[in-house]
Every structure is written in C-alpha cells, then in structure tokens.
Design a protein that fits this description.
By secondary structure, this protein is mainly alpha-helical. Helices cover 65% and strands 4% of the residues. The chain has two domains: 470 residues, no CATH class; 42 residues, no CATH class.
C-alpha cells in the first residue's frame, strides 16, 4: 500500500471517543441560575414588543439572586454533611465552606446592587434589561472564581467577571467620562488578564498541572532545585489578581474608573469584583502555594503595607466623593491582604468577615452617592453634601453609619473586621504590618469624619434657611453707608404707595414687618454696629442650598438592608464570625 493510501486509511479509521467527565450540576447550581436567568431575561426582553413596567427588570434580578442564594445555602448543608467538602466536574470545582461563603456573599451583594440600580437607570433614561443581564453574568464569574479548583477555571471566571464589568462601566453612553473609564479599564484589564494567563503557563511548566490540589500535592512531595519558573508564575498570578482587587501598585485604574462609571456599576464593582478577586487570590496562595509561604509572604506583606498607606493618604486630598471612596476601597483591600499575610485559618476567617462586612458598607455608601448625584450623575463634590443632615436627616444618618463603619467605629461591622485581621497579623508575628494597619485606620478616619462634619455643620455657621428666605449672621459683614437718613413726616407714606393699613402684611416693606429673627427694626438698627444682628434677605440675593434629593422606594430598601447588616452584625457578630470560621478551604 502506498504512503498516500495508508494516510487515507488512518484518517477514516475509528477514533477513541472523547471521555466526558460526569457533571454534578447541583455543585454549580448557583452559577447556572445566574447565567440561565441572564439569558432568559435577555431573550424575553428581545421577544417582547411592549416596554416592561417600571421596576420589573430589577425585581426579576432580585428574584434570580434570591434563588441563587437559596441554592448556595443548600450547598452549605451538603458541605456540613461532607466535611470539609467535595470535588465535582472532574476535580475542577471545589464545593467547600470557602466557596459557599462567597456564593452567599455574591448573591447578597447582587440583591442590593440591583435595588440600587433601578432608580438610577430610570432617572438617567437608561431603562432596559441589558444592565441587569451584565450584572448577573458578571456575578456568575465571581462565583466561578470562588468555586474553582483549577487555574484555567479561575481564568474563565475572571474573564466572565471582567468583560461584563467593562461594558457596565461604559453603560452611560451620554457621559464622556463613562466611555473613557471603560476604555481605561478594558486596556489595563486586558494586560492583567494576559499576565495572569502567562503565570498559569509558567506554573504549569513548573508543576505539570493547573489543578490546585495537584499543584499543592506536587509541591509537598517534591523539592525543586531551581524554582525560578515557578516563582515567576506566582508573581504573574499575583499581578493579575492584584489588579482585580485594586492592590497597590496595580491600582492606577481604580480612581478614574470608579469616578467615571455609573454609580450603581461602581457599587457592584466594589463589592462583587473585589469579592471574586480575593476569592481567587486567597484560594490560590493559601491553598496551593502554602508550602512556598516563605517565598510569597514577603511580597504580599509589602503590597499590603503600601496599599494601606497609599489608599489612606491619597483619599485625604480628594474633593470628589467617588474618588475618595475609590481610594478608600484600596485601603480596605490592604486590610484584607493583612489576613492573607497572616497565612492562618484565623487570618483567612478575618479576611472573609471583612469582605462580607465591606460589601454592604460600600454598596450602601454608593447608594447614597447615587441619590445625591442627581440627574447626570455628576454632583459628587464635597459641597454637594454640605448641610445634608439639615435637609434630609434620615439619609445623612444612614450615610453617617456607613462612613463610621468604614472608619472602624465600635459597634459596627467595620470595627470588628479591622480588629480580626489586625489580631491575626499580631498572632502571626507581623507586628510592623499591624502597626501600619492601625496608623492607616486612624488616617482614613479623617476623611470619613470630614464628610460627616460637612453633612451636619458644613452649611455655614450661623446660617439657616427659613421658608423662602435665608437668614445670615452678619458678624463679619462690613458696615454699609446708607447715606443720610431721610425722615418722612409722621403719619405719612412714601409717594406712590398706598397706606400700610390697607396693604396685606406680606406686601408691606421690610421696615414695617416683624423681623424673622424675632427682633424689631429699631433693635436691629441699635445692634448693627455691634455685629450681632441677623438680617432677612430674599432668596434671590443669596445662593440657595441644594434642594432635597428624592429617595425612591427601591433605593430606600437597599439602604435599609445594608444598614441592617452593618448594625446587626456589628452588635451581634457571632453568626457571621462562625460562618467565616466554618468557611475553611478544602485543601
């Protein structure tokens, strides 16, 4: 037989069928619910001619998120019966306390994010299913990262999470800042993904596997005489995941993207994207590379320290609240890295508690920013919050709660979160890092308290709005020479006016009406030189304070849920602490 004939026979010869691994769909049910819900919403909206009633898309997203939450809790019951957990889908998926913790966290964060988005999209005339579809898909990527037991699966989840976020960042097409932020995020994110993938290739070349459990077993059973390739792979993995959690020096995208993105997208990004990034980071380094702790711990310690310092110091000088919260999120990322540096079960539990508490604090904070931002999503300077406590005391009180929690004020989840990670650092002997963390917390408290002060006494000392007039203290007003006094004969009226007795009180000259401050005209004249009088001036003569901002029902529900979690688990933290301690890794 000729060579050509032999080749043709080889082509038509029967081949061995591809072996397909058994798939336990219950192990990935929360992810399937989110993906299926996103596809169903997109299909139904595309096939329906009529516009959906107000709030339907948000309610649908909340319902899908709650279904994913229920599925996650059912997995928690299975984990309790199969301690510490089990593997599924040919060992690519890990069902353990760690993964279930993040499934619950992402589901809850998606609920409050959807409620926050509803009023914003309606206000900005961006109503439609696309934003919610993107949020559902992005959240499924974060879940996949948490449950992954393979570097390839982590990369797959990272891309699902990131690509949807790029689109959400540029969703407000009428704002140039939104498109600019999306472009920056996409370009830098593409570089970080490439570095992460290259790191996977190097780790595979050094260990012969991308499975996290097999990598851990290989490193435990073998001593590498030359581990330069493996160390380079670990460094690139750290860079890729460090970008996603906004750790310094991979944080440069964060302020611009947080400021330019639609505020609900920023809230979602700060909660869900950070949770997914840390899920991958904690699992890869604490689970797979625990044997090489002495190699990666110094690098993570340095990154945690500079992240704490840069986040706190840079936030102090910000005048835009969204940029301030962006640097605040960088500072919080440093605290979570402190738990990883501890490299102990206590440190990981502290980081998990911190992530759960932070998700509700940050979504609640951005929910308030969403309301104050008004139409156009551009009213985010510090001046926009001056006197908010006087105009809308309930909204200001809720925002004060979230800011106080982020500052680490006692009786809030933020205080306990900082306490647990710092205690873990002290327990592991990282005293210098613990001191840096405490100094950073004290520095960060400044810009949180500054905003609180602006809300309550920032409207100007001695100034208040009375009806349509503004009452101003004139202690520092220069004396005005009104010229020589003109005396009218007694019992007469100025020319061209009708008698005062026949005019309504509201139209009488200011000299004949009672002063709004309670004094008489003669009293005001007597005390003018002393600088202690109050003058009533028409509103047109002075810049009026910002009007009240509307707080729709969906936004109020989101604020209520976030505030409840922040207060309840701050006063009674035992359930959440137990949940975090039970979320142990499988390997």
């Amino acid at each position: 037989m000729s060579l050509l004939g032999a080749s043709l026979v080889g082509l038509v010869a029967p081949t061995t069928p591809l072996a397909r691994p058994p798939v336990a769909y219950s192990a990935i049910l929360p992810e399937l619910i989110l993906i299926g819900g996103a596809l169903a919403l997109l299909a139904l909206a595309s096939l329906t001619k009529r516009r959906a009633p107000r709030g339907v898309y948000a309610a649908y997203t909340v319902a899908v998120s709650v279904a994913a939450l229920v599925a996650s809790l059912s997995l928690w019951e299975k984990v309790n019966h199969h301690r510490p957990g089990y593997l599924a889908v040919a060992g690519a998926i890990s069902v353990d306390g760690f993964s279930v913790f993040f499934l619950v966290l992402v589901s809850c964060a998606l609920v409050v994010s959807a409620l926050t988005s509803e009023s914003y999209l309606r206000r900005e005339d961006l109503e439609g299913p696309e934003f919610y579809v993107l949020a559902l898909l992005s959240a499924s990527g974060a879940m996949l990262m948490a449950a992954a037991n393979d570097l390839i699966v982590i990369f797959l989840g990272l891309e699902i999470l990131s690509i949807a976020l790029y689109v959400m960042t540029g969703y407000h097409s009428r704002r140039s800042q939104s498109g600019e932020a999306a472009m920056k995020y996409f370009i830098l994110g593409a570089f970080s993904s490439a570095l992460f993938l290259y790191g996977i290739a190097l780790v595979y070349g050094a260990t012969g596997s991308t499975n996290l459990a097999k990598i851990a077993s290989f490193l435990a059973a073998n001593v590498l005489l030359s581990n330069g390739v493996l160390l380079a792979g670990m460094a690139l993995l750290l860079v890729g995941l460090g970008f996603k959690v906004a750790a310094v020096p991979f944080h440069t995208w964060t302020p611009d993207v947080y400021q330019g993105a639609p505020t609900p997208a920023t809230a979602f990004m700060a909660a869900v994207a950070k949770a997914g990034g840390f899920a991958g980071l904690l699992r890869v380094f604490f689970s797979s590379f625990s044997v090489l702790r002495s190699d990666w711990e110094p690098a993570v310690l340095v990154i945690a320290a500079i992240t704490l310092v840069v986040g706190a110091v840079a936030a102090v000088v910000q005048r835009d609240v969204k940029r301030m919260l962006a640097y605040s999120s960088i500072n919080h990322a440093g605290f979570i890295l402190v738990g990883l540096v501890a490299a102990s079960a206590t440190g990981i539990a502290g980081s998990l508690y911190y992530l759960f508490a932070y998700a509700f604090m940050v979504v609640g904070s951005f929910a308030v920013v969403t309301a104050v931002g008004r139409t156009g999503d551009a009213n985010h300077t510090l001046d926009a919050y001056r006197g908010l406590g006087r105009r809308q005391p309930v909204l200001a009180l809720v925002f004060t709660l979230f800011l106080a929690a982020q500052a680490g004020i006692p009786f809030t989840t933020g205080f306990l979160a900082k306490f647990y990670v710092i205690a873990a650092a002290v327990g592991s002997g990282s005293y210098a890092l613990a001191i840096i963390a405490m100094v950073s917390a004290a520095t960060a408290a400044f810009f949180y308290l500054r905003l609180i002060v602006l809300m309550y006494i920032g409207a100007g000392e001695g100034a208040e709005v009375v009806g349509s007039d503004r009452v101003l203290a004139v202690d520092d007003q220069p004396a005005v020479d009104d010229g020589p006094a003109v005396t009218e004969p007694a019992g007469t009226e100025p020319a061209g006016t009708e008698p005062a007795s026949t005019r309504p009180a509201s139209t009488q000259p200011a000299s004949t009406q009672p002063a709004v401050t309670g004094g008489t005209p003669s009293d005001l004249g007597a005390t003018r030189g002393a600088g202690v009088a109050l003058l009533a001036a028409p509103q047109d003569d002075f810049t009026p304070g910002p009007p009240r901002v509307p707080v729709p029902a969906s936004l109020a529900v989101a604020l209520g849920l976030c505030a409840t979690v922040t207060v309840v688990f701050g006063l009674y933290p035992a359930p959440l602490i137990d949940f975090a301690h039970s979320a142990t890794l499988l390997f």
